[in-house]
Structure to design on (393 residues):
């Protein structure tokens, strides 16, 4: 049987099909969680934002239109939720989190891999919030440039520019 | 924001190459997943919402059914009440009724019913606020019968009609029987001319009334 698309699953859940939601949730739970964890930098806040984002999805399921990409809708909700959190939190929280990789597991593999991860984490911490979010939406969320632009509320060129700067800095950090 | 649709998959070749070099390291550091309790909380919230939606649907259906039931019951009650909401409209001439002008309401004079002998008169007050067949019923009721309930009035009318039918007809305050006795006295006394005149008058007053054999000749 052909697998249903995200949009079909969401439409089915809007009609009361719980199994459709479970399937949809399984597809997006890990990427969304990682996006939020790296964005805010600490697991408890990421947990709150993660749960809050899904609750917003559940509450506003009737407002969802299958013509729009579910992934873009989900990440827009998560992005807006995170921005609300940053606005409510003290000004320091509006800065890039100090420990973007704090929620990541301790490197217990090869030393080189651990070192590269450490460098990647450091590079992520050094990114401006807009560039960080662009790269997270790209690598964790799997969104294209246009969707990143829509989610973050900027035009496509701005989103592309942010992503290009972020990639360059991360690449440089890994090659050092 | 103009976008080439073909750019969605490959946003920019140079950018994609840079991203590829990062992805391998990114994946190794991306083992994070939401805690199991968090998964459970989200799924429970979704389940509650789906069930409450089903519940709301059921309630909406029940609400609609209850509303429809109330509307039908109200309509039934209104239809049943309609015949008692007001007096019956007065009969029209086109319906085969002859309208008698009710002058009592305007002149204050008693309305006298048509017929050979007036059975009763109707006080002027009686006509106020009454209409239709109630008026015609009251027109034949005796004075002082106003206080009686409608059932008593109709019984009284029936009794009166029966009595009137049983009684001999009258002409000029004289019944047919009295008149016949007088005719017999005229015959016995031999007043033939007077008898002939009286008989003619009797026949015109009581046409078809049976005469005794001695007078029939």
């Amino acid at each position: 049987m052909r697998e249903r698309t995200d949009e079909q699953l969401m439409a089915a859940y809007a009609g009361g099909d719980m199994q459709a939601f479970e399937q949809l949730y399984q597809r997006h739970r890990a990427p969304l969680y990682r996006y939020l964890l790296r964005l805010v930098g600490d697991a408890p806040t990421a947990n709150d934002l993660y749960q809050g984002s899904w609750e917003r999805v559940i509450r506003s399921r009737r407002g969802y239109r299958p013509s729009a990409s579910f992934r873009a809708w989900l990440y827009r909700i998560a992005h807006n939720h995170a921005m609300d959190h940053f606005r409510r939190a003290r000004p320091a929280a509006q800065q890039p989190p100090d420990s973007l990789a704090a929620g990541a597991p301790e490197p217990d593999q090869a030393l080189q891999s651990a070192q590269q991860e450490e460098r990647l984490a450091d590079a992520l911490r050094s990114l401006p919030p807009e560039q960080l979010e662009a790269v997270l939406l790209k690598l964790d969320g799997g969104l294209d440039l246009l969707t990143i632009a829509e989610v973050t509320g900027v035009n496509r060129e701005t989103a592309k520019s942010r992503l290009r700067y972020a990639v360059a800095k991360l690449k440089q950090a890994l090659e050092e | 924001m103009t976008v080439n649709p073909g750019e969605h998959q490959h946003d920019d070749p140079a950018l994609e190459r840079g991203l590829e070099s990062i992805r391998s390291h990114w994946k190794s550091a991306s083992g994070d997943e939401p805690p199991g309790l968090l998964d459970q909380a989200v799924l429970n919230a979704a389940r509650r919402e789906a069930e409450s939606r089903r519940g709301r649907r059921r309630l909406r259906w029940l609400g609609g059914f209850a509303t429809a039931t109330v509307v039908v019951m109200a309509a039934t009650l209104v239809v049943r009440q309609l015949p008692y909401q007001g007096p019956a409209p007065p009969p029209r001439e086109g319906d085969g009724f002859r309208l008698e002008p009710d002058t009592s309401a305007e002149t204050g004079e008693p309305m006298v019913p048509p017929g050979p002998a007036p059975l009763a008169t109707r006080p002027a007050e009686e006509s106020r606020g009454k209409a239709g067949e109630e008026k015609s019923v009251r027109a034949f009721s005796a004075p002082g019968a106003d206080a009686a309930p409608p059932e008593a009035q109709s019984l009284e009318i029936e009794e009166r009609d029966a009595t009137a039918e049983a009684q001999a007809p009258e002409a000029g305050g004289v019944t047919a029987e009295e008149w016949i006795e007088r005719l017999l006295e005229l015959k016995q006394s031999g007043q033939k001319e007077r008898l002939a005149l009286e008989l003619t008058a009797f026949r015109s007053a009581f046409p078809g009334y049976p005469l005794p054999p001695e007078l029939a000749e």
